[in-house]
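lol forgot to send this yesterday, sorry. struct tokens for the thing we talked abt
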């Protein structure tokens, strides 16, 4: 069981988050110190399987190589980080291209959403909030999600 006390940079934090999610670790009782120590204001605040950002200046970061999925309540934002898939050639022999947000690489004609790839036109994709559905569409394929149902509470989203 792990709890990150401090991280030298967000890339190291994202790597640790990826490890934790792959190992299905749900409690962060033990401590892991990643990199050199940072001031207390920088240390991540865990909320179940999420990283919690509450202060106005604590905005969820964009990390190259990791997509994030977040929900917000009135005071805070709760995020999960998902590692981008790694591949050098697409199934049809084409070369992967940077996604619209330049965070990951994806094959032409496919959408990348929370570490998974989807074919253009594919629907019924569960959104990060686990309530709404998404579809992969567009000239430059991207995931578009409906926002009909209310998002889950942070307790449910973060599996606290």
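and heres what i got for the seq, position by position
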């Amino acid at each position: 069981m792990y709890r990150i006390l401090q991280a030298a940079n967000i890339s190291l934090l994202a790597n640790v988050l990826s490890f934790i999610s792959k190992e299905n670790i749900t409690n962060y009782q033990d401590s892991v110190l990643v990199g050199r120590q940072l001031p207390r204001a920088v240390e991540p605040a865990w909320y179940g399987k999420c990283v919690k950002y509450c202060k106005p200046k604590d905005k969820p970061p964009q990390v190259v190589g990791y997509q994030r999925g977040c929900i917000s309540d009135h005071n805070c934002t709760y995020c999960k980080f998902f590692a981008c898939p790694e591949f050098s050639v697409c199934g049809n022999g084409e070369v992967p291209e940077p996604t619209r947000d330049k965070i990951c690489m994806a094959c032409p004609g496919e959408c990348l959403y929370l570490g998974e790839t989807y074919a253009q036109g594919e629907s019924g994709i569960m959104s990060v909030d686990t309530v709404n559905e998404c579809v992969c569409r567009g000239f430059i394929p991207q995931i578009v999600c409906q926002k009909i149902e209310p998002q889950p509470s942070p307790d449910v989203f973060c599996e606290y």
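The helical segments are 10-22, 154-157. anyway ping me if u want another try
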